[in-house]
Amino acid sequence: MVLTRLFILLACLFSLSSIANSQTVEPPNFAEVVQGKIQRARALIAAHQLETAASELESVRASTRDFSVQNIASVMLMNIYLESGNYGRAEALLEEGFRERSARNGDSARTYFALAGQAVNGSRLHIARYRSVGISTTDVNLPAEAVTDLDRLRSFLERLIAQAKEITREQRAYDSLSLLEDVLGIRLSLAKDAEDQTRWQAEHSSARLLLTSPTQLVSLNGISALPASKATKKHPSSLPYATRRVDDPKPADTAATVPVTGTNEVGQQAAGQAAPGSTAPSDGGPLNARATRRVVPAYPALAKQAGASGLVRVHVIVDETGKVIAVSKSEGHVLLRRVAEDAARQWFFDTSFSENGPSRLTGYIDFNFTL
C-alpha cells in the first residue's frame, strides 16, 4: 500500500513537472508572435488605445523569458502608463528595473536608465499637456482632479529622485548624476509653494554642482565618462540615460554624420584626409570629417522592434597613430549606444594636423540611426 501511494505520488509529480515544462517551452514561431504583439501595441499607442496596448505588452512581458524582449515591453509600458496617469503601475515598473539593475549584467543597468529616461520624458509631456490647454500647474485654484494628478506625479518624481541618489551614492556616475539633475529640475518646476520651491531649488543646485565639478566621473561600463578638464561642458543633446530622440546635429555637422538605416550592415569605408586647421589638437570636437577609416554599426533587431532611432554621439580618445583607444561616454537611445560604441572603437583618424605633428586628441563621432 505504501509503495502504491509512493508510485502514485511520483506519477503526479512527474505529470505536474511535464505540464510546467510544456508551459515554459516556447514554440518555434514564438518570436514571430511576440514581434507581432509588439508591432500591434505600437499601432494601438499611435491610435491612442492605451489600455488595449498596455494589455498587449503586459502579455508579452508575462509570456516570454527573453530579458531583452521584456525590456522593450517595459520601456513602452512606461510611456503608456505615464500618458494615461497610471503612476502606480509606472512606479512598479521603475522599482522592478531598480531592483534588477545590480542582480543581472550591465544590460539591466542600461534597462533601468532607459525606463528612467522614459519616465523623465513622460513626465515632461504630462506637464506640457497642462500648459497646452492654458492651465498653470502652480495655480492654487486648480480642480481637485488636477491637484490629485499633480500630487501623484510629484510623488512619482520623488521616488525617481531617491533611486538616482542611491545609485549616485553607490557609484558617482555621469549617468545617475545627469538623471538626478534632470528629475530634480522637473520636480522644481512643480513646486507647490515658496517653501517647496526653496527645497527643490537647493537640491537641484547641489546636483548641478556635482555634475559640473572637475571630479573624475565614471560611466556604466567603468570608463571615465568625462576628462576632468572637460567635466564642466555639457552638450545640449539628450543625456546618456535618455530614450528620447536626440536633436538633429547642426547643419555644419550634418554632412559628417554617419547615417545608419534599418537595412545597414556593418561595413567599412575610407574617408579623405581632413584638412589641417585645428589650433587645439587635444580637443578635436566633431571627428567624422577627419576619419581615415569608418565602420558603420549594424542596426540592432531589438532596436528596430522598439522603434529606436535618432542621433547617437560617441565620445572617444584617439592616440597619436589615429586609433581610438577608449570610449569615454555615449549619448542617445540606450538600445543603440552599444553598437555605436563598438563601431567607434574601430575608427581611425588623421592626427597630423598640428605644427608639432601627430598628437593625441579627444572628440566625438555622430551616428544617425533611421528606420
Reconstruct the topology from this structure:
Blueprint: H1 2-24, H2 30-46, H3 50-63, H4 67-83, H5 87-100, H6 106-132, H7 144-170, H8 174-189, H9 194-212, H10 251-254, E1 258-261, E2 267-269, E3 283-286, E4 291-296, H11 301-306, E5 310-318, E6 324-331, H12 334-344, E7 348-349, E8 361-370
Parallel strand pairs: 1-8, 3-8
Antiparallel strand pairs: 2-4, 4-7, 5-6, 5-8
Helix pairs in contact: 2-3, 2-4, 3-4, 4-5, 4-6, 5-6, 5-7, 6-8, 7-8, 8-9
Structural account:
By secondary structure, the protein is α/β, with parallel strands linked by helices. The chain has 2 domains: 30-212, Alpha Horseshoe (Serine Threonine Protein Phosphatase 5, Tetratricopeptide repeat), CATH 1.25.40; 238-370, TolA/TonB C-terminal domain. The protein has helices at residues 2-24, 30-46, 50-63, 67-83, 87-100, 106-132, 144-170, 174-189, 194-212, 251-254, 301-306, 334-344, and strands spanning 258-261, 267-269, 283-286, 291-296, 310-318, 324-331, 348-349, 361-370. The strands form 2 sheets. Strands 1, 3, 5, 6 and 8 form a 5-stranded mixed sheet that branches. Helix 2 runs parallel beside helix 4 (67-83) and helix 6 (106-132) packs parallel to helix 8 (174-189). The protein is globular, with a radius of gyration of 24 Å. The chain starts with a helix and ends with a strand. The model is unreliable at 1-25, 214-255 and 264-281 (pLDDT under 50).
